[in-house]
Here is the input.
Amino acid sequence: MQLPNLKEAKVRTQKEVVTKTNDYIITHDLVELGRGRQYYVKTYGCQMNEHDTENIKAILEDMSFTEAGSMEEADLILLNTCAIRENAHNKVFGMIGRIKHMKETKPEMMVGLCGCMAQEESVVDEILEKYRWLDVVFGTHNIHQLPRILKEAMVTKKLNVDVLSIEGDIIENVPVKRDHPYKAWVNIMYGCDKFCTYCIVPYTRGKQRSRKPHFIIEEVKELINAGYKEVTLLGQNVNAYGKDLKIDYTMANLLEEVAKTGIERLRFVTSHPWDFSDDMIRVIARYDNVMPYIHLPLQSGSNRILKLMGRRYTKESYLELFHKLKQALPYSAITTDIIVGFPGETEADFQDTLEVVKACAYDSAFTFIFSPRIGTPAAKMLDDVSLEVKQKRLHELNDLVNGYSRKANEAYLGKIVPVLIEGSSENNAEMLMGYTDTMKLVNVTGSKQFIGQIVPVKITDVKTWSMTGEIVENA
Ligand code: SAH
Ligand code: SF4
Ligand code: F3S
Here is the structure.
């Protein structure tokens, strides 16, 4: 057993991060372990977790497991979890309860928990106390050791907890089974050193570690050769890319080099306003294949709250950056994240947030009620805003934000915009769906032959969260 430790997770060691190109090993005894068995991975949380699941699936297939069509059919269920808010945590424990019932009629089925919740000392304590019937718990730093961890649990038939609290090295040879044939996630960095006071990510993902540029470029080139049209560069704080490498190389340099590979669409998430450089803005403006879409989390519009959050910018400096971006990239869509009900947030603070939302008229926003996370500084602050007030603020904010989303979409009516057609629409199999360059969801009428292509689409109708359009042939 290797248990997570909150104190260790908070530490930032000086230990040099080593890039390892052969640390994922699948020895002879592991290759056949999954033969005749099916796996199912359920993913919660952000794109980082979705991409980790793509690695987990490939590792399981290296062990001869095959993917099950549903959880009910699986011999191995893994929950790849998220710890960002209380409700993510509750959903997972709800699911574990459901799986327990399934296991009663299927006792040989194996069940595991991984991802960010596995990195939490308090969660693993709870599992050891109440859920000892689980088979494996592993963290975000040792996904590449899954074959060994799983084998140990199979052999001992006991719960095997294997979670490292100090981040590991960068493992470059982990396989990946991509969910999508046309768009791909590419990690450019792991971890986060920003330590915003409300956020658990710096503890669940460890210190910031940037991948070396040439590994990223190689991966993108391979994706182009495999027919991929779109790449999203992933990191919790991508603008800080390279700061931990001992070479003079920034996110602007990386963005430019990746743009030069010729990938048709290049995106990146998430940008912290603090590290957004003018060089980056110039690169986004210069290269047509860098998509005009920027996610720029605000969190709060109150300087007092921003300071308590440890966000390192003010309302004024945020607005200055926002306007600089809009000036350089007038066609771009900008979206954001906002937290309401942070400890001590007054009505005046909340009004400041609304004011920034009005000034920015975001294309869309993800809005959240503050959720105290064990081990973070904000969890120790006096949470003196009542739930009723928090909910009222969330509603008011959502009404405002949704109005702007709709307005932003209305501006597309009658226009012809490029859409990467991904497949059939979820709600209507007769229709296709895809995203514009500005990341707007469009349900499209047109021939299935266009799936996988970027085509001109005329927008015929808009709603708050989606649009409808038709492919313009011979445009
Ligand atoms: N790295 C990204 C954010 C990742 S988490 C960034 O810095 O912008 C995604 C969003 O979840 C955050 O932007 C924040 O709005 C929200 N969030 C994070 N911790 C939270 C908490 N404790 N309570 C409520 N929302 C939270
Ligand atoms: Fe969390 Fe802040 Fe890091 Fe984003 S930048 S992951 S909000 S600590
Ligand atoms: Fe959740 Fe972990 Fe992502 S906490 S938001 S899955 S980094």
Remarks:
- The two ends are 62 Å apart (CA to CA).
